[in-house]
Structure formats: C-alpha cells, structure tokens
Write a structure and sequence with these properties.
It is built from twelve helices and no strands. The chain has helices at 3-8, 14-22, 36-54, 56-69, 73-87, 89-92, 97-110, 117-129, 131-134, 138-151, 162-167, 169-195.
C-alpha cells in the first residue's frame, strides 16, 4: 500500500499516522528515539507491508505487471490501490477526503520536530503538489509514477504503467476491494495487540 492507505489505516492518532507514513525511511531498529505512538505506527507499517506482499490477491494484481516492470510491479500496484481508495473514499470514511488530507498535512507541520530527515526533506514538495489528493485521478497517478520513475533514472519504466491501469481497470479495482477488506481486518487485530502492550 502507498501513502494514503497507510495513513488511513492508522485510525485517529496523529502520531500513529506519522509513524506509519514515514516508516519506509527508517531502517531496522532506528526508531527508539521516537514517541511510542510513532514507533507503533512504524510497526504497523511493517505489518501492513508484510501482509500485503504475501497476499494472493495482491500477487494476482502484480502478475499483470511482472513481464514489463519486474520487481517494480508491487510498487506500482501499491500506487494503483491508493487510487482506488481515493476514488472510493466515501465507502471507507465519513470524512471528506480533502478534509482528511488537510488534517494530515497540518499534523505534519505541527509535529515537524519529530519527523525523520527523509520525511522533512520532501514535505514541502508534497504539500505544493498535493500528492495525496492527486491519487484520485489517472492523470494524478501518471504524474506520481513518472516522478517515481525519475528516481530510478527511468530504469523502472513506471511512467508507462497507467496503460495497464486503464487496460485492466475493473480487474484491479475488484482486486483492491476484496483485498482491502481483509487488510482492514488484519490492521484491527494489530491495533488490538498494540493496545495490550
């Protein structure tokens, strides 16, 4: 799952959201200086990734991309799934997507002193280009994948992946819908474990 799903799955805690959001840039055990809720967000992020990568429905989605994108297929499906979450937001939340995103951006600003250097480094660009809002449209997804492709020096060819998104759109959306229900249930169990620590 990509940024939007990780934030959404964190529930109502700002610090849990922040930990989940910036977890990719935190290696190994380099998290013990963060507040407990941020640490729990990092743990939750890793649990989500482990569950996702091994899930047969997610793997079914990546199969459509393997021949062309190889080991980048999972990264691309993560972005596709965020698109379907944004597109169908009202199915999963009573809060308007724009308001949800603005609240999260504000929480990053309010907690700037505890952000990882990597997160602090791309925050300004994320706000300016409104990454989370751009997930709603295929055009927005195309822009995100193009930016990601640049970071691989264009070796991944992710910039062309909206071709497959459009080709298999209904299949990807159905796979997301089934998978996301199972992921939400898994996350609820993980959050119960955190509350018992």
């Amino acid at each position: 799952m990509n940024f939007l799903a990780h934030i959404y799955l964190s529930g109502d805690s700002d610090l849990l959201k922040i930990g989940n959001f910036m977890a990719d840039g935190i290696r190994g055990n380099q998290f013990d200086t963060y507040p407990t809720e941020v640490q729990n967000g990092i743990f939750l992020h890793r649990a989500i990734d482990t569950f996702t990568d091994a899930h047969p429905i997610f793997r079914e989605s990546t199969k459509k991309l393997h021949a062309r994108y190889h080991h980048y297929a999972g990264v691309i499906v993560d972005v596709f799934y965020d698109h379907f979450l944004a597109k169908n937001w009202s199915t999963y939340s009573n809060e308007n997507l724009a308001d949800f995103i603005e609240r999260f951006y504000q929480s990053l600003k309010d907690n700037a002193t505890i952000l990882s250097p990597r997160t602090a480094g791309f925050m300004e660009v994320m706000f300016r280009e409104n990454w989370l809002w751009s997930y709603r449209t295929i055009g927005g997804i195309d822009k995100i994948l193009t930016q990601m492709d640049r970071r691989t020096k264009n070796q991944s060819q992710m910039r062309t992946a909206t071709e497959e998104l459009e080709q298999f759109y209904t299949e990807f959306e159905n796979e997301f819908t089934l998978f996301f229900e199972e992921l939400r249930a898994h996350v609820l169990e993980k959050q119960k474990e955190f509350s018992q620590l």
